[in-house]
Amino acid sequence: MSTVVNKTKNSHLQAALENWVEKLSDIYERMTSEEIQAMSLGNRQQALWRIMDEFVRTFVPLDVTEDDIAHYRDSLLGDEEFFISLLRELAQCATGQRVESIQGDQQRKAIFTLLPPPELRKYIDMMTVDFCVYLIHRFSTS
Questions:
Q1: pLDDT tier at 70 (50, 70, 90 boundaries)?
Q2: Using CA atoms, how far apart are residues 131 and 59, in angstroms rounded to an integer?
Q3: Is 93 exposed, middle or buried (0-12, 13-18, 19+ CB in 10 A)?
Q4: Distance separating alpha carbons of residues 139 and 142, to the nearest angstrom
Q5: CA nearest neighbour of 31 among 98, 71, 79
Q6: Which residue from 127, 136, 126, 141 is spatially nearest to 105, judged by alpha carbons?
Q7: Residue 13 to residue 39: CA distance in whole angstroms
Q8: For residue 135, what pLDDT band results from cuts at 50, 70 and 90?
Q9: Got the DSSP string for 38-73?
Q10: Which of 32, 21, 135 is CA-nearest to residue 89?
């Protein structure tokens, strides 16, 4: 079976996807590092909170409320599976690996249809990830 590879033609979107993957990978490495794990529980939670808050504020739309930002950040911090899933889906979009299609004009909106990872294939046929490009321009210029 051949591997499907389908990257976006929008260079800003592609750069943003790559930046998000790099940033999330760095966060995950920092979250699981010996340095963080050696901290007291309170200091570790505070350090992880700062790291994730920085990421979330670059990732969510500008019109999202502070309560929603806090909920999203806390969800990523509290659910490792959710965090890893987000990282995996963004990496898939960035590399184009197992991207079935990209719909939308890719200037204002891009909807990626992803083939699920092999281990989830028996449960899921396709997944979609929707990006609004105003987020991409905001992230890629910051």
A1: very high
A2: 10
A3: buried
A4: 5
A5: 79
A6: 136
A7: 37
A8: very low
A9: HS-HHHHHHHHHHHHHHHHHHHS-TT--HHHHHHHH
A10: 21
| Structure tokens belonging to residue 108 | 């204002």
Q: For residue 64, what are its two tokens?
A: 């999202």
Q: 92: how many CB neighbours lie within 10 A of its CB?
A: 21
Q: What angle do CA 81, 16, 7 make, to 5 degrees?
A: 85
What tokens does 96 get? 């184009």
SS3 107: coil
Q: How many CB atoms lie within 10 A of CB 20?
A: 24
Question: Are the beta carbons of 97 and 21 closer than 8 angstroms?
Answer: no
User: CA 14 to CA 50: how far, in whole Å?
Assistant: 26
β-sheet bridge partners, residue 46: none
pTM above 0.85, yes or no: no
Residue found under tokens 């504020």: 57
